[in-house]
Amino acid sequence: MGPPLVYHPAYSVPLPDGHRFPMQKFRLLKERLEQLELAAPGQIHQPLPVPRRWLELVHGRSYHEAFARGLLSRQELRRIGLPVSWPLVRRSWLAVGGTLLTARLALRHGLACHLAGGTHHAFPLHGSGFCIFNDLAVTARVLLAEGRVRQVLVVDLDVHQGDGTAAIFTGDPRVFTFSMHGASNFPLHKQVSDRDLSLEDGVADDAYLRALQHTLPDLLEQVRPDLVLYNAGVDPHRDDRLGRLDLSDDGLHRRDWLVIDAALRRRIPVATVIGGGYDHLAALVERHTLVVRAADALARIHATGMELSCPVTDGAYAGNG
User: Fold this and answer.
1) Residue 28's CB: how many other CB atoms inside 10 A?
2) How remote is the C-alpha of 262 from its chain's centroid?
3) Is 288 among the residues known to form the active site?
4) Which of 123, 108, 157 is nearest to 273 (CA)?
5) What local confidence, expressed as pLDDT, does residue 305 receive?
6) What is the rounded distance in angstroms from the CA atom of residue 71 to the CA atom of residue 320?
7) Which are the contacts of 33, defined by CB distance < 8 A and separation ≥ 6?
8) Among 121, 237, 253, 288, the one annotated catalytic
9) Is 0.85 surpassed by the pTM of this model?
């Protein structure tokens, strides 16, 4: 059996017709993984909503209560970009609980994948860019408070900088934030991560992977984290509506393989979240399967001690089979 997967049916909530956030991708991703035999019933874990005391390790009560009660201002709602409804409120608490559960499963099994998550634009007192609560930040804070980890590395490879995560952990040496993102993309005003790699528009597979391979292994050796939280956003893809980079499906798969393999080789647990992506649903869902494909293969390889040539150079992704 492959790595644990975390999912809840309430992740996909109704949005107005024509809304550009692809909310149905979560349900479709789970169904596609089942078709690919990458999501057996025994692998799937269903989260509970994050308790308020844990959410408040990052987010102020005034903010989350105003959100839940529909009291955010028009400007605050416009900054988030999602119309508030009770299903969205429930979904937001569940998704944070889902990333926390994924991290707990990763600490137990070495690797786990959340079929949602990566809401890295959320700040303590406001949301932004389709992000309401910062699931990665809450997860790190909870595990640190419980003493389950002493050092966390956030590897954020969404095409947009993880500005909320960077701001939350400014001055906190227990969480190292690494963001590799498009220089000219949202957000306009970047925060300062512990390590930022800003890429010019049009960067393609080989240059992207060289930059990542040059940076990540050294970071793992330097930071020596007890856990990697990996945001595997697929919006660096060449066809992404909001991306501006030029990665292929194969490039994304090789990227995911590189991150997960680099951590597992050092016996560092990895929890993955799917991050952003904006394209036609069928193509988008297929891209979101890539991190689970990589995780599934690597979990089996590392469990048996097999050696496999690295697809960063070999081009391992072979399509929809």
Assistant:
1) 17
2) 17
3) no
4) 157
5) 67
6) 45
7) 5, 39, 115, 289, 292
8) 121
9) yes
